[in-house]
Amino acid sequence: MFLDEPKIKRRVMNRSEHLRTFYEHLLWKTSAIEVDDYASARQLIATECSNWPQMQFQLACMYAMTDWIEDDIRFDKYRRITFKKRLSDHPVYDFWLTLMESNWDVFFDTVNVVYAELSLLTSETRVPNQKLTLCFQFAIRHGYFQLVEYIWEKIGDNTKEYIG
């Protein structure tokens, strides 16, 4: 009779919610009354979550800590398979898990563009696919500046125009 909320709606957390779990361990910026998200996440990964690989992975993904994400010893093949089963329905984790298995080309589709003036002239254009776009939108909407910056530096000018 009553409809349940979709799974995705229940899982999405505000960016401060991950860190709020560890409130007493947060690091504050020296010049403002503001939590230093990146430094707090890095410290939490190293200390409080040292025996919690999934939370380490989640924090590293949200804050684009490539040194942690790309560590094959910490996140070996079997852990990645487990993460894919548990976390692949989230755009950020799906983005990183896909990137770990392949390269940046997987995030782009090639589209043939036909110019109206010269119907004989066509060109191929790379446009970002849904995985990249959803991850980027999530990062912007929830304030994960490091992830936005990481993606922005990796994409070309045409893709930047396409995204917006």
UniProtKB/TrEMBL annotation:
Name used for this protein in its record: Uncharacterized protein
Top-rank taxon: Eukaryota
